[in-house]
Design brief:
Number of helices: 2
Largest sheet: 10 strands, antiparallel
Helix content: under 10%
Distance between the termini: 19 Å
Number of strands: 47
Structural class: mainly beta
Length: 593
Amino acid sequence: MNVVFATLTCISLGLSFAFAQTPEKKYPEYSKPLFFAVMDQELKIKNPQVDYDLKKSKGKSLEINGLIFDADSFSARLENEALNFTWNQELVPGGEITIINQQGKELWKQKAEGTGVWSFKDLKGAKAPQWKDGEHFRFCLRSEIEKGYSSLCTQWYGIEIKESSMQMGPAKSEATARVIIQNEEKKLKGIEEVAVGAPVQFLATLNNNATYEFVSEPISPVIKDMIESEKEGQVTLTGELPAPLKAEAQILPGNDYSKVTKFLGFESTIGASRDLWQADVVQKNARLILPGKSGGVFSYALEITDPPRQKDRRYISDKSLLGTYSAKDKMTVKDAEDHLQVWEFSAPEKFAMNTAFLEVPGEKVTHKSYLDIYRGGAGEASLRLTGVLTSGSDFVMLGEGHVSWWFNDVFGWQNYYLSKQRWGVSARYFTSITKLPASDDTGSSEDVDLKVAQADLRYRFKPGLWEKDETVGLILAYESMQVGDLTVPKTGVGLFWARSMPRVLDYWFSKIPFMNYPKWVDMEFIKYVSSTDSDISLGNDYVINFHGKVMWTPRFFGEAGFGSKNYYFEKKSDGSGAKLTTFFGTIGAGINF
C-alpha cells in the first residue's frame, strides 16, 4: 500500500444568509464521511491482557475480561423428548457438542447449529446418545478455528432410563476451583499480560467441575477511524472485525447486497469491501474486549488523546468513485460547515491500493483524513486463437489481436455523467489461419481468406474501473470484413454487461487450481444496422459474445469465450453476399497495462 499526502484547492462558494430556523444542508449528496487516520499520539493500544477473578465468587463463577462463566453459561435440559442446549456465544460461538462419561469415553457428538440455542430431538434414533441408565457424564461444546480452540464443559449429569421415559439432571460433584495459564497453575485472581500472535492457553475449573478453556492467539486490533462521540466523554471507534465484546457495537456492512442477490449467489468476488464495527467507548480508562483468533477473550487498554471533533469531519459525495486509472486525480470534499474544496491526490502505485491523506486542522493538533484509492490499469492487450464452426459444418481457425483502453476522464473534465470513468475504446483484428470454403451462384467453390477489423466506442451507464466495478453500457461499433475480394464495412450499436464472476459460479470454478484466482466476465451484443458502402445492404447481421478472464497476476491473465455471429449482407450491384450463421470459441492470454 502506498501512502501519499494531498493538497487542497478552494472553491469560491459565495455568500449565504442564515435564518432563525436550522438551515437545510446545501449539499445533501455529500454524506460519505472520510475516516480519520488513527495516529500513535492520538490512540495507543496497550498489550493484550487476561484479567480474571475466580476468587470473589469462591469458585462458583469466573469473571474474565468482563465476561462471566458460571453454571448457566452452558447448560443442557432433557425436555419433551429433546435435548435443549443454551450457551454464552461470547465465550464460545458454537461448534460440536459431545457427551463424555467419567471414564473419558465419548458417548455422542453432534454439530450445534444455532445462535446460542440448539435442540436435538432424535433421542430414539440411530444418532441418539449411547448412554446407560445411572451413568454420569458431562456435555462439552468445542469450537476449533485454525490451530486453536475454545470450549465449555458442564458439571456432571446423571440419567435415569426407564422403558417409557428418561430423566436427566445435575449430579452432585465437587472440585477444587483453579486457574491454569500457559500450563502453570495461578492464583484465583490476577492479570496476565500476553503478546499478540503468541498462543495463550487458559483453563478455569469451577467448584462444580464446569470448565472454560481456550488456546488462542490475541489479535492486533485494527482501528480504521476515531472521532469524538456525540455522547459526552466518549469517542466513536470504527475497526475491522471481530467486533468488541461487552460493547454495543454496530456492524457496518462493506457491501449491502439485496436479499435477491444473496439468494442467487450473485455477490461480487473482486474488490468486495470488508465489514466493519463501530462502537462508543469512554475516553478515559477505555478498553476493548476482543475475541482471539481461535476464541477466548482478551482486553486491550486504550490511551486516547485529542481525538478529532465532529466538526473536523470531512465528507465526499455518495457518487465519489473509489478508484482511478491516473497517477494523479481529484475529488470534491465538504466540511461540516458546507464549504467545498477540491482535493488533489496522488495514486502512484498501479494495480494496488493507495492511501491518500488530507490534513485537517484540529483544535490542538492537525488530524489526517484519508481515503483508500485503488489504481487500476486503463489498458489491456491480448492474443487469441478462435475456432469458428459455420451452419454448413465448415470449420475455420482465426488468429486475433485485441487492445482496449478506458479513460479516467476527458482531458481533465470530470463530469460524473459525461466523462468520469465512462468512456472506453477497443480494437480487434482477425485473420484466418485456415481458409474459409465459399461458393458462387454457378456452384463453383474456392477457399478464401477471411479478415476482420473492428473498432468500437463504449459508454458505461455506471462509472468505475474495468475488472473491478460492475456496469452495463452502450457500444457504437464499426467493422470492416474482407471475404476474398469482397470488403464489407458496417456500423452497429449494442450493449455490454461486465462484472466479477458471481460468487455462486466462482465457488465451483475456483476448485480448478489454475482458476483459483480473481475472475472477470462480460458479455456483449452488437447489431449491425448499416454499411458505409452504399452498394451493400445488411439483413439480420449481429454478434453475441460471452467472455471471461482469470487474472493470474494483476498484469497477466488468461481468457476464454464463446458466442455466435450471424452474417447477412448483399452487394446490390451483382447480388453477391453471404447468409451465414457461425458459432465460435476462443482462448487467449494477455496483459493489463
